[in-house]
Amino acid sequence: MSIQPAWQQRLDFFGPPIIVEPSRAALTSDAGLLPLRQFDEHIGLTRAFAAALDDPRDPALTEHTFLEMVRCRVYGILAAYEDQNDHDTLRHDPVFKLVAGRPPDGDDLASQPTLSRFENAISIASLKRLRDLFIDQFIAAFPRPPRRLTLDLDAVDDPAHGRQQLTFWHGFYDQNQYLPLVITCADNDQLVLLSLRPGNVHAAPGADDDLAHLVRRLRQVWPDVELLIRGDAGFGVPWMYDACEARDLRYTFGLAANKVLQRRSEPLLTEAVRCFEQTGAPQRLFDGFWYQAKGWPFPRWVIVKAEANAHGTNRRFVVSNRPGARVLGEAAYDDYAGRGESENRNKEFKCGLAMDRLSDHRFVANYFRLYLHAAALNLLTRLRRQVAEPPAPAAAAAVPTEALAGAERRDHFRCRRQRDPLGEGQPCTWRLLLIKVAAEVIGSTRRVVVRLSGSWPHRDHFRHVCARLAGAAARAAPSG
């Protein structure tokens, strides 16, 4: 335990003097991590993660296990301690000791140099096992075989601020960076597969191989599942069409505009402008046609959206082999636009959980660090679904959520976030309402007592999460 030197600070703004001094009690500021650790114990996420790693060390000389260090890093990321340096302080924290598997008054956890050696010790074989582990955990998250899954592909820029291996300048992003590939599932929000790539690649290289591996694994378990693939125009390239068509996958990809597409969609845009000028109401028109680019072996169906409003005009193109795309172009396009929700998961990954802090020098070490951040995201995502409130009953004449648009859609999701702040909450919301709470930790031979503040305004959220976890554990327990 770290004992701070005695000191007092006198403040005089109140009237009677205010004396601030340190306490010798074992205190923490992150007691809200405990329910997350309880959920982790139930689903076995970090235990399986650590088991996938090769540990080359002599067990007789090992003080900090890989499992302990995985949990230090994953829970540190969840609590906004994304850097190894943070753990030089956190190694003394009683709650971090508990979540890592040590008693609160036990030996200190791993220091920054030890964590650095840990991340740099990971082998390529371990990374391959982690890739399959993420797919295994994704499959296990479904209580019954799904009939259909929607998988979203995205490239997420990861700016670099040093001289890490394989970081390069990317002209589009105008920065030195990595460019990870992320595949998420729109049906349960989980991150299913990821790849760390050099910073100067196009969005799509390697995506066909990753998709082929993922599809093969999923169909080994669910041979009848229908898979829908979505991606922006960066993935609208011939080898991605070929990869999908060879595996009987339904896809919708963005398509970059060119002179031929613009010429063929000009009448639709003209009609949208004419209707807007006549009515003053924003216009959003759709059309579709067969189109064959020079490098394509045969024509493919292209949907065009033309918009006209007070801000000007806008045209967007997608290419799709979905059967309904030729009949219901607007619906097919709107389903493609739904991939924006998966982009929100990527935003959480990058901004909320600091995925872009890949500051090890070696590329393989940074690849492993990306997996640590992904594990933190999946743990939070799965817990969020576990504690979410059931949808509010809709009025008899209410429009289905999928059909809402514009201000009505924004109001719907705003009300949903207000009603269920944890079930809909981003990482910063979870930290504010649950994770970041001071507590006193008292350990004995019989039990560990964690005393929260009686005036903590978000105590009900803590109790709600614990009650949901207890209910889930009771349902999962064998009867008899």
Summarize the structure.
The chain is an alpha+beta fold. The radius of gyration is 26 Å and the shape is globular.
Structure description:
With 480 residues, this protein is an alpha+beta fold. It is built from 16 helices and 16 strands. It has helices at residues 33-43, 45-51, 66-78, 87-90, 94-100, 112-120, 124-140, 207-221, 238-246, 259-279, 329-337, 340-352, 363-387, 406-419, 427-435, 459-476; strands spanning 9-11, 18-20, 27-28, 148-155, 158-159, 168-170, 175-178, 181-185, 191-195, 226-231, 250-255, 283-291, 300-309, 312-320, 439-443, 448-452. The chain has an 8-stranded mixed β-sheet, sandwiched between helices. It has a 3-stranded antiparallel β-sheet with strand order 3-15-16, with no helix packed on it. A 3-stranded antiparallel β-sheet has the order 5-7-6, with no helix packed on it. Helix 1 packs parallel to helix 16 (459-476) and helix 7 (124-140) packs parallel to helix 13.
Number of helices: 16
SSE class: alpha+beta
Q: Shape, please?
A: globular
Largest sheet properties: 8 strands, mixed
Distance between the termini: 44 Å
Low-confidence stretches: none
